[in-house]
Amino acid sequence: MDFYAVLDQAVDLLRSRGRVTYGALKLQFGLTDEQLAVLKEELIDAQRLAGDEQGRILIWTGNTDATASPPPSSSPLASQSPMPAGQSIQPAPASAPQSPEAERRQLTVLFCDLVDSTRLAGQLDPEDLREVVQAYQATCAKVIARF
Question: How far is CA 13 from the centre of its chain?
Answer without folding.
Answer: 11
